Amino acid sequence: MWIELITALALVCVIEGIMPFLSPAGFRRAMLQASQLDDATLRVIGLGSMILGTALLYLVH
């Protein structure tokens, strides 16, 4: 189980690093826009991300 968790965290790091590596200026703009969002909007985005991730895991397994 720990191997799978570490593998998942490693993949998250790789995926998260793609945008700032390919387009640092675009990443900076996106982060500035995200900092302007209110808490409720960020929570909805986070919830949507968690639901999408759970659905993908369900489909894969």
TrEMBL record:
Transmembrane regions listed in the UniProt entry: 40-60
Assigned keywords, A-Z: Membrane, Transmembrane, Transmembrane helix
One Pfam family per UniProt: DUF2065
Source organism, top-level taxon: Bacteria
InterPro entries linked: DUF2065 (IPR019201)
Protein known as: Uncharacterized protein YjeT (DUF2065 family)
Classification of source organism: Bacteria, Pseudomonadati, Pseudomonadota, Gammaproteobacteria, Methylohalomonadales
